[in-house]
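Milestone M4 deliverable, item 7.
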Amino acid sequence: MTDQVEGASHRPPPVHTHPDDVPLLTALSALADPVRIQLIRDLASRPDWALSCSNFDVPVGRAAKSHHFSVLRDAGLVEQRDQGAKRLNRLRREEFDARFPGLLDLTLRPDVTE
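Output delivered:
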């Protein structure tokens, strides 16, 4: 008999990098991709933990989307947590802004083209 909850995910929990541990070039690289910019913009427009990975309408497949989220976690931009079969997301705006003041604001400006 197992202690697993029915419907719980069998995947390992996501690994997060704190923005304090992110080099500037890693942050810039993460923000240089149009798909990742769209993910960040979507997260910035919604409350924390409101969007699961499947809620994002980006022009890539599931594996590519997973890769983009991994890059964003590694850059300290996104935090994820599993809730049943869903992986919920939050923009780490406050923490990222403390490390790179103004960078996220510049990225989220409407005049920034992809």
